[in-house]
Structures are given as C-alpha cells and as structure tokens.
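Key idea: predict the complex, not the pieces.
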Amino acid sequence: MIALLIRDLRQATRAGGGFGLALAFFLIVTVLVPFGVGPESAVLGRIAPGVLWVGALLACLLSLDRIFALDFEDGSLDLLATAPIPMEAVVVIKALAHWLVTGVPLTLAAPALGVLLNLPQGGYGWLVLTLALGTPALSMIGTFGAALTVGLKRGGLLLSLLVLPLYVPTLIFGAEALTRGLASLDNATPLLMLAGITFGVIAILPFAAAAAIRINLR
Amino acid sequence: MSLWEYANPKKFMQTSQVLLPYFAVLAAVCLVVGLVWGFFFTTDDYRQGATVKIIYLHVPAAMMAINAWVMMLITSLVWLVRRHHVSALAAKAAAPIGLVMTLIALITGAVWGQPMWGTWWVWDPRLTSFLILFLFYLGYIALWEAVENPDTAADLTSILCLVGSVFALLSRYAVNFWNQGLHQGASLSLDEETNVHNEYYLPLLFCIAGFVLLFVALVLQRTRTEIRSRRIQAIVARERLG
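Result:
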C-alpha cells in the first residue's frame, strides 16, 4: 500500500503529472475575482471566504479525472484489481495521494491568496483549519466520481456534473464555519459537521468507489 | 404468487398492458376533476388572490419529484440485490419524469413567488434543495446516457443513486442550516391542527392522486418502451450473428 502511495505521488510530481496545475488554477481563479467584482477592499473581504472555498473546490475538481484514467488506460488498474490488497484500500490510497498533491498544497497556499482578497485579520487560522478539514472529503468524493466514470471515453465533463452536487454539503459547512469564525461567532456546529462529513465519507465511499471500479473493469 | 414474478419481463409486459389504460384513464379523470374544481370552483384567497391556485400544480409536482427519487432508490436496490432487469429499467424510466416534476415545481414556484414574494428566486432552503435535486437527476440521467453497456450502466447508476440519496439528504439539512427560509411550512400534514382549508384541500387531494397515477402510468409506459428497445437490440444482435 505504501509502495502504491509512493508510486502515485511520484507520478503526480513528475513532469506532465499535473502537480501544481491545481495550485495555478486556484491562483488564477482568485486573481480573476477582483477583475469581475471590482477592487474595493470591503467587498472583497466580504466575499473572500466563499471565493477561496469555491476556488479550492474547483481546483480539486480539475485533477480528479487523472486519479484512475491513466491507470485504466495502461492496464495497471487491472493489475491492482488482482493484487493481494483489496480494491477499497487502493481507492483510499488513491484518494490520499490526490489529497496530498492537491488538498494539502491548496490549504497551504490559501492564506497567501487570502491576502490578495483582503481576507480580514483573524480569518487565516480558520481558513487553513476549514480547508484542512474539508479537502480530504473533496478528494474522497472526487475519487468516487472518478471511479464511476473511469471506463468512459469522455468522462471529464460528466465527472464534474456528478461530483459537483455531491460537494454541496462540504462547501456549505466549510464556508459557513469560515464565515462564522471570521465574524467571531460560535462555529463549533459547522466545524463538527464538516469533520463529520469528512470522516463519514472516508468511512463509506471507498466501498462504493471500489464497487464502481469492479463494475467498470468487468 | 409473489411480487418477484413481475421481474420476468414477459409477465411484466402482460400485466402492465392490462393495467396501463386503467392508470392512464384514472390519472386523467383525477387531474381533470382536481384541476377544474381547483381552478374554477374555489374562491380566491383573500391575501394571495388567484395565485393560490398554482398550489394544484406545485404541491403534487414537488411531492412526485421526491417520490420519484425514492422509487428510483428502491428499484436500484432491487437491481443491485436481485439483478432483475425490469427493476433497473424502471429506475431509468422514472428519472426523466422526476426531472420534469422537479422542473415543474421550480417553475410554478417561481411564477407564484414573483407576485407573492416579489422575486422569482430566493436562496431559500426548500428552493435550493430542489435545485440540488434537479442537478442530481441531471447527473443520474447523464450517467445512464454515457455508459454503453446496459448492465454496467445499470450498476453504476444504481450506486450513484444510493450515494446520491445520502448526499441529497445531507444537502437538505446543510441548506437548512445555511439560510433561513422564506417558504411556508407544510400545511397538508395529517397530524397537524392548522392545515390548509378544506375548500383547497379536497381538490388538491384529487390533483395529488392524479399526479401519482400519472407518474405510475408514465413509468409503466416508459419501462415498456425500454423493454421493447432492449428486445429490438437483442434481435438486431442476433440477426447480425446469424
């Protein structure tokens, strides 16, 4: 399992692996927003939590179709299916690798982009915390979506259509926890819900995703 | 004699052929009675005026939009557990109907909201969760269309339906948490004291019955169509071989 994780990480960080693509996308989205809504700091500070969360979510979405597609094309997914480790474990490792190459860098880069958007003081800790809690859920849900569409020729667009509605609860609780944290309100409830979604998703979705992969490999 | 006999396509075709006209006629009767009664023989509400009458389309459509998904969930489970093709095809047949019902509920709601709330759309929890439900239907139908092998498509969409149901429920509570509602609460519940007045209630019951029957009739019809198209594919494949 660790070998698989290392292999996935190595492939992702090599040239053409798409590492950094999500980060660059996140940066561009955040830079585009002030062009769209105008440069007033007050407005930007007000919408910054939502923009940062939506930007991170879209950046996560960008690299989802790579999770299984390449392995499916060159046949290594078939080998993984016949390997001694269960498919569920493969799915978890894939999601973990996706999180390590997109979720973690996004979380770390978010405060810098928060400065660009004039995120109010005191929000940076909450920003990192909510993203760190929420991005694993994004990766896991996305891995499930990728597993559903792995056999399709033009699965990319369909993948977005399937995954985006599934992202709604995560986005709501993540952005809500951040907004409330900024306003110095009690945000324990959305934080707990966000953590609940993340852990629930990690507990349940590997089984659904593994089932989908087995169907697609049939 | 058990319910599972109808999982046999032949048996299903025979039975549904007999039942379909009854459901269709009953649906038409209920809808005509309910809508005519509702539209022309009830008084206008003293605050909402004639716009109150959109309830006869809005409420049944909204109920069927949710019930269609529940039906898809059940048939998907039956397909995953017992591998009855009719079940999977019924789920496929129900999805576009549910999509249209969701759309009807959203549009009639917007038409009603414009004069009443002064806006076509607000990010109210109920409205938002219906929009999310609409997206779920879209994704579900798109996945059916995208996968070529029918059995694979049935399996994948069933899994999507199961996972989607969990997330749809989760979204429902998430949006409740996210914004306060403008939409009025339920006024048809059997266990509450203050319900909608009987003058509106009775024609509404006819409309709801009509929509349920219409849904059943449409699902039967569409499932029959799916079975027939599956048979045609089989025949074409056999011709090509022989």
